[in-house]
Amino acid sequence: MSGGISIHCVDVANGQLAVGLHVELRRLSAEGDALSPLLAEGRIATNGLLQHPVLMSEAITAGGYEVVFNVGDYYRARGGVVPTPAFLERVPYRFHIADTAQHYHLPFKFTAWGFSLFRGGA
């Protein structure tokens, strides 16, 4: 069984889970391009996680991935004062899975002006 991926998002500027933030996940090609079709996409749920069946399935194999966080749209939807385009419009993050038996937890903590993203719980 695959250890899977969890994506947890926190809006630290407002001190709350980033409910409604749109997130996309793609597999990288062997050349490192993220042009493959979406593996998973959706909005962050009330528990702060992207809930998608692919994330904890056998579809998560060894290799490279790109997750994209749509920060600009998130703050505009909240009525936040951000320019268009926002300083952080879409935040891409590329990572690789070597051992599919391990779980890859990705905490994304952000404001309209900066972010922190890392592998948690490793």
Molecular shape: globular
Q: Could you list the spans in which at least 5 consecutive residues all have pLDDT below 50? A: none
| CATH class category name | Mainly Beta
Q: Helical content, roughly?
A: under 10%
Strand order of the largest sheet: 2-1-7-8
Our count of domains comes out at: 1
According to CATH, the homologous superfamily is Transthyretin/hydroxyisourate hydrolase domain
Listing every helix as H and every strand as E from the N terminus to the C terminus, the arrangement reads EEEEEHEEE
| Tally of alpha and pi helices | 1
Question: How would a textbook summarize the main sheet?
Answer: 4 strands, mixed
Quaternary status: single chain
CATH fold group: Immunoglobulin-like
Average pLDDT = 92
Indicate the radius of gyration in whole angstroms: 14 Å
Q: Which percent band covers the strand fraction?
A: 35-45%
Number of strands: 8
The N- to C-terminal Cα distance equals: 18 Å
**Helix/sheet category:** mainly beta
CATH architect. name: Sandwich
Quick recap of the structure?
With 122 residues, the chain is mainly β. The chain has one helix at residues 71-77; strands spanning 5-11, 16-17, 22-27, 38-43, 63-69, 91-97, 104-110, 115-117. It has one domain (5-117): Immunoglobulin-like.
